[in-house]
């Protein structure tokens, strides 16, 4: 197996960006499918390094709930979040030293639990302006951008100041919003997600250091172009894993249990003689007929039709769009691959969501396929190597078809 690449891990906490670097354990998850994800950092009692106990727990400058934290790997910011829980001390007879545990959620956490203002008028506004207006109600000032694949490898210069998140490039989204108002009781992020999906975008978060704002990526899943990484678990003729393999464990899951073979959408009226009541459009799920799918599912599986009524399907084109969108959403869960590698970088490049990788796993039967990373979890402690867990879907599986806004 290939040797892991060790990263310097730093946590910056509070308004003065107190730097902490003596770790007991950390666990951080990044995703392009969810926001408000939890993080956990544990520190052991130490009077050395930048985590001296007096700095962490003293009456002056101590860490507090509500403080902003930023995690950096080799100087590159990968997570910004808010502390919501602090556990300090020792709570076990067998534990010889106190521990400080810091936990919370990523920077969009407040938008997941806080409601949007239902009096906001959104329809016709620029998407960037509408997102800012919704998030402002939960105290978030967004820095909206597109997803950027960090192509440069990490410098060997260590212990430098934290840099702006490399996965984000500020940009304006000028598409006109279709949604009219937030619904009463609708969470702020639900509103933003609804606006973006109607226009064919996904939303996730990333650090944007030095701006005082929260990085919000509004973009489409990456497809095409050169892969960011090559990941492999190869077997030699004797069945042993080769030395150049990085994957320590891997598992593919294929399931068509919730995947329809065809979707039919009917018009917006259940009965009657109006033109809209007669609209019906069927879409066959062509994803099940791709070469990769036919290697895992029989060509003539038992039919799983789905019939939907939609008030948006006032035309045949609208009905077709609705049916295709339902198929695309179901196809996201058809194939998934999870694996673990040592270290947080491969050949110097950080592993991040929305990267395309060229994947080979001889154990599960994947040979040189292009997959999209959708979820990354970094973990480490002082007794083991740094580890990264990756979740992926086939390239093209994460397709968002713009929705028709309700009339």
Description:
This protein folds into four domains: 9-106, Phage tail proteins - horseshoe like beta roll fold; 111-219, Baseplate protein-like domains (Phage tail protein beta-alpha-beta fold, 3-Layer(bab) Sandwich), CATH 3.55.50.10; 229-254 and 335-394, Phage tail proteins - horseshoe like beta roll fold; 262-331, no CATH class. Helix content is 13%, strand content 35%. It is built from six helices and 22 strands. It has helices at 53-57, 109-113, 127-136, 188-198, 291-294, 316-331, and strands spanning 9-13, 18-20, 25-31, 38-44, 68-73, 76-89, 99-106, 142-147, 168-170, 202-206, 214-219, 229-233, 247-254, 262-266, 280-284, 305-309, 335-342, 345-346, 349-350, 356-361, 366-381, 384-394. Strands 1, 2, 3, 4, 5, 6, 7, 12, 13, 17, 20, 21 and 22 form a 13-stranded mixed sheet that branches. A hairpin with a 6-residue loop joins strand 3 and strand 4. The longest helix is centred in the C-terminal third of the chain and has 16 residues, at 316-331. The termini are far apart.
